Amino acid sequence: MTPTPDDTPTLPQGPGFGLTFLYYFVGTALVTTLMATQTLGIGLETGQPNQFGLLFGVIGGLVGASLNRSSTLALTCPNQKTFRKQLTNILADMGYSEVSDARDDGILVYQRTGLSGRFSGKIYVLIEGKTANLSSRTSHLRRLRQQLEKAGIR
Question: Global pTM?
Answer without folding.
Answer: 0.82
